[in-house]
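Regression test case RT-17, inverse folding.

Input:
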């Protein structure tokens, strides 16, 4: 669900976003704007100097909503998507997966980039549930993570030094002794809009917040864990 703010006095969009979402890092706010996540009165814009008037409603959309608008190659159409699966219509002539001669122009590669929103550092990957020959068109099913492919609901991603960092498409939060803990940006996580919103709400409710690395053993002994 989008985070919304109503404009009370004339301003330009970027300064308004900095003030309205003061808990978010300025670079994160710029990324929201750059990738079309910001809407003014229901219309997406990337203009940092967009003029705002009192009464305008500014919304920051979740990443999955923005991602759904990203264009895929002509003929490759998403027919169904939920938290676990993607079902696509594969056109004839498109490889399902990589071959020795082609690694990038395949259904799996396109969908992996689609899930990563163009950011190669993200860990999402489309996993083939079944293949179709190159010359064959038809429906294909992809799992959104290896965990889902093997019957699990979600995977918990670890950093190189073994700390719990995030899910395949969600930020990680644990609660211990009344303190809300989430991994820092330095643990190679994605600075999601929802994460920023949760941290902002927690601070408004005077819930102690701590951004630090989380050992994976803490996940088992925490009072609460959510993603």
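Golden output:
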């Amino acid at each position: 669900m989008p985070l919304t703010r109503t404009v009370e006095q004339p301003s330009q969009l970027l300064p308004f976003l900095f003030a309205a979402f003061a808990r978010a890092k300025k670079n994160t706010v710029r990324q929201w704007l750059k990738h079309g996540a910001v809407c003014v009165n229901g219309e997406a814009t990337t203009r940092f100097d967009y003029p705002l008037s009192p009464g305008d409603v500014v919304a920051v959309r979740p990443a999955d909503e923005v991602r759904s608008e990203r264009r895929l190659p002509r003929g490759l159409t998403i027919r169904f998507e939920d938290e676990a699966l993607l079902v696509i219509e594969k056109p004839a002539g498109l490889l399902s997966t990589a071959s020795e001669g082609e690694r990038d122009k395949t259904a799996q590669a396109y969908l992996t980039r689609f899930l990563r929103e163009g950011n190669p550092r993200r860990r999402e990957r489309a996993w083939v549930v079944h293949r179709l020959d190159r010359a064959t068109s038809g429906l294909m099913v992809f799992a959104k993570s290896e965990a889902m492919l093997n019957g699990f609901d979600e995977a918990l991603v670890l950093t190189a030094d073994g700390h719990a960092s995030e899910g395949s498409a969600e930020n990680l939060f644990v609660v211990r002794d009344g303190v809300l803990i989430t991994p820092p940006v330095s643990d190679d996580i994605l600075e999601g809009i929802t994460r920023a919103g949760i941290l902002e709400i927690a601070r408004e409710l005077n819930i102690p917040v701590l951004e630090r690395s989380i050992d994976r053993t803490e996940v088992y002994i925490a009072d609460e864990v959510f993603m």
